[in-house]
Amino acid sequence: MRTRSLLATALLAVLTVTLAGCGGTAATGTGGSAVTVYSADGLGPWYQKRFAEFTKQTGIPVNYVEAGSGEVVSRVDKERSNPQADVLVTLPPFIQRAAERGLLQTGGIGTGNASAVPDRDPQGRYTPLMNNYPVFIVNPTVAKPLPTTWDDLLSPRFAGKLQYSTPGQAGDGTAVLLQLQHVLGKQGALGYLGKLQANNVGPSSSTGKLQPKVSNGELAVANGDLQMNLQSILTANSNFQLFFPADATGARSTFALPYAVGLAVGAPHADAGGKLIDFLLSEPVQHTVGLDAVGVPARPDVRPADPNTEKINAALKGVTVWRPDWDAVARDLDNDVAAYQQAVNK
């Protein structure tokens, strides 16, 4: 697996989307300085529509940089002496790690629309933006019979046809480790992943890159997340199905893995960044989460009724949703990732 030291020297693959004619991070529009968003991948199409609406309303352009969950935090950390990002969006436990490292402004999410969101950080450093759930995807043409359990994934028929994103680098990859810890315990999870390594193609810092590989049959199985995978099926006609691997008793489970947002410390355009966060948490924008992003609104007072929300509810039917202690996960992350690397590299 790719190590954290390699991450420090690897070229950061990013996608920069410039809206309303803005250029670099110092660009300005009629409503003030541009706001720069560093975000974990998966929300690109939703962002593009919302950022365009925000620019139209405020005159403030938005620059967008996309990478893996751990990578965006690493980039903000590296730029600490010369901050470039205004808004950071990433998954747990990386958002907690960013807060611990002093990369997010205390009280940065303000008291506006964030006050309608539960589970926000008590110090106001971050808040859920959109809820999501870890899942696996399978190509029904390549994988016959379809796997349904964790034990099924250990079958030799998946040798060289299975891949999951790397724990410690990708949020969804870290979620695989957490889910297995929940099902098997910490040592049991390490033992399982050590066995699974016989089938694993290799490391991947981005879960999104695995979707087309499963769809075209290069891979039979990969990990993913409900929002990103359903969106790919609905908008790109991807040739894969979703499943939650069952444990030895037949029980299927997952946990909430929200995209979370915070205002970066030293943000060059903090006022604009705060306005964007408040806009994304507004009731009208949260109503677009199901239809345009195939996600679940962070605000419990927003309950969209649309076909995509129905698909989300159908996918989760019969699946137990548990809740991690994210502070504990963040605290143990380095040790857990080190133990994982040792288990798969024996």
Task: Describe this entry's structure for a reader.
With 346 residues, this protein is of the alpha/beta class. The chain has 2 domains: 4-131 and 258-304, D-Maltodextrin-Binding Protein, domain 2 (3-Layer(aba) Sandwich); 134-255 and 317-344, 3-Layer(aba) Sandwich (D-Maltodextrin-Binding Protein, domain 2), CATH 3.40.190.10. Helix content is 37%, strand content 16%. The chain contains 13 helices and 15 strands. Strand 2 (28-29) and strand 3 form a beta hairpin. Helix 5 packs across helix 6 (186-196). The longest helix has 19 residues, at 326-344.
Unreliable segments (pLDDT under 50, ≥5 consecutive)? 1-31
What is the residue-averaged pLDDT? Answer: 90
What is the molecular shape?
A: globular
What's the helical proportion of residues? 25-40%
Counting copies of identical and different chains, the oligomeric state is single chain
Total DSSP E strands: 15
Spell out the CATH superfamily of the largest domain: Periplasmic binding protein-like II
What is the C-level CATH assignment of the largest domain? Alpha Beta
Series of H and E elements: HEEEEHEHEHEEEHHHEHEEEHHHEHEH
Q: The CATH topology of the largest domain, please? A: D-Maltodextrin-Binding Protein, domain 2
> The biggest beta sheet, please?
7 strands, mixed
In DSSP terms, counting alpha (H) and pi (I) runs of 4 or more, how many helices?
13
User: Into how many domains do the coordinates divide?
Assistant: 2
How much of the polypeptide forms β-strand, as a percent range? 15-25%
Q: What structural class do the secondary elements suggest? A: alpha/beta
CATH architecture of the largest domain: 3-Layer(aba) Sandwich
How many whole angstroms does the radius of gyration measure? 19 Å
